[in-house]
Amino acid sequence: MAVASGVKDREVTAERLLAASAKHSFDPLKDIDWAAPLLPDTYFIAEERCTLYGTRTWDRMSGRQRIDLSRHEVASTASVGIWFEVILMQLLIRHAYDQDMTSRHVQYAFTEIADECRHSTMFGRMIEKFEAPNYGPGKHAHELGRVMKTIGFGIQTFAAALIAEEILDTAQREMMQDVTIQPLVRGVARIHVIEEARHVRYAREEVVRRAPRLNRAEMAFSRLVIARSAHVIARHLIHPGVYAAVGLDPKLARAEARANPHHHETLRAWARRLVAFFEENDLMAGPGLALWRRSGLVAPDYRPPAKALAV
Ligand SMILES: [Fe+2]
Ligand SMILES: [Fe+2]
Predict the structure, then answer these.
(1) Gene3D superfamilies per the record (predicted)?
(2) Which conformational region is residue 238 in: left (phi greater than 0), alpha (psi within -120 to 50 degrees), or beta?
(3) Mean pLDDT computed over 102-108
């Protein structure tokens, strides 16, 4: 009975999401003025969100170097966004393969895949406009992503979607309102935030429906896969090549960024909503907690609330 009503709810949600998509979707190739020049002397993300902000190296950098670093960091995050969207598209296609193709639930999955195709095109254009390389997440994460997109399923699909979508969404909500940064970044963030709000709703409801149906072993395995995904995504948002691009030693600068309390605060601020949601659904527990702590998305002494520990 609970499953039947869950499926009905699922159709109601999908119907609403389809209606919202029909009303409010974008074509970034037409809706963004790609020919407009970038503004001179203007950051690409708020300077306090740069990974080196507040460090000794930051103090020594010129204004030009700082702005260039912000350009490369936004490009790196966008390239990791594309990497993740490509994984998600495949996970969603594989999810749909086993479902009723006439259901609104599957039709929304197809709509979301179409959104992600346009987003990845938009991010690719933005990286090109920034004259930055396609940094990507690095070789190791690239191969882990290949495994995830090939065998990930069920709750893992939707929880992994939320990790990337919620972190990026929180970051982009700040960007779209920040009138001091490049208008192109604000415009891209605005389109992504509006369309991703629907994806977040779709994935959250699926996690809420699926979590209570997992047996002990499935729950333990899912928590670990989710923790590993969070660790990989968070640790690879910024490619060390961004530091080399502005004349810094990539190894030293990355170590400094990873020890930077300002950067820790940024990661935790961007992950707060996601972590609260996983806590509510008992997904923050078990051996994966060590990965969460190392990811920087929670404090190094993080402990989930008692409810999550009880299971
Ligand atoms: Fe997207
Ligand atoms: Fe999405």
Answers:
(1) Ribonucleotide Reductase, subunit A
(2) beta
(3) 97
pLDDT digits (tens, 9 = 90+) for 31-62: 999 999 999 999 999 999 999 999 999 999 99
If you measure from the C-alpha of residue 162 to the centroid of ligand 2, how many angstroms do you get, rounded to a whole number? Answer: 8
> Which tokens in the block code for residue 266?
């940024």
Residue 35, CA atoms < 13 Å, CB-side half-sphere: 1
pLDDT at 309 over 70: no
At the topology level, CATH places domain 14-26+40-310 in: Ribonucleotide Reductase, subunit A (1.10.620)
Ligand nearest to the CA of 203: 2
Domain ranges of the chain: 14-26+40-310
Query: Ligand 1 centre from 83 Cα, in Å?
Result: 11
Residue 224 amino acid letter: L
Note the ligand closest to the C-alpha atom of 165: 2
Closest CA to 145 of 185, 103, 90: 90
Average pLDDT, the chain: 95
d(CA 16, ligand 1 centre) in Å: 19
pLDDT of residue 306: 81
